[in-house]
Amino acid sequence: MALLHTDFYSESLGMCMQADVILPEETHGQIGMEGKAADTYPTLYLLHGMSDDQTIWQRRTSIERYAAEKGIAVVMPNVHLSWYTDMKFGFRYWTYVSEELPRLCRMLFPRMSRRREDTFVAGLSMGGYGAMKCALRASDTFSCAASLSGALDIVSHLEGQPENGLFYDIFGTSEEAKGSFNDLFAAASELKESGKPLPKLYIWCGTEDFLYEHNVRMRAHLEKLGYDLTYEESSGDHQWKYWDAKIQTVLDWLPLGKEEA
């Protein structure tokens, strides 16, 4: 695999941004690892959590080694504390992640597939919210999404938050968020009714995680709507030893090299 640390200008944010990118490389002589490559390759957008940045998946997991075995490109963008959202008071991070970033990556790395069937998104915690949002609000771009310990019920997450803090600047009040573009429950319902392509979804959360109830509620909602959902839970809380294991499960779950059903 090739690991690139990229800096580029974002028109939607009006500033320079960073993303770390893993690209497939066919190799046979590396110690303990063999890489796969192809003329075009699928791409996973891998999203970080609230306290992290674009480097965290490399620092806490062996994502480069896992991706090498699959022949998949991995894009790890920095989005600061944005919650992958066009903020109430702030910057247009949703527009950046869901529209501009895939367009830029396909221009800068032309062997990345442009097909929806080859474009995936996953993340943890805040990034789990971002991944599900990409799938439910930009399903023309992303065919599969995986959330690990995701903050999936943003309305309940906002309850009790001050009206002069970070979450208010991003989302407004819980009343404003309910039913809005940023509400994943509303997004799932609206996409189901729209006639647009539905993504395949994967959710995992530890039963001791403080976000566990978010995931249980989302599971019930998605199953009621009839989404293609793989839901798993197991003992665990909010930490990297679980996410390191589960990102491997996600890579096995993705339909790599297969046509979308």
From TrEMBL:
One of its GO terms (molecular function) is acyltransferase activity, transferring groups other than amino-acyl groups. It comes from the Bacteria. It holds the Pfam family Esterase. This is Esterase family protein.
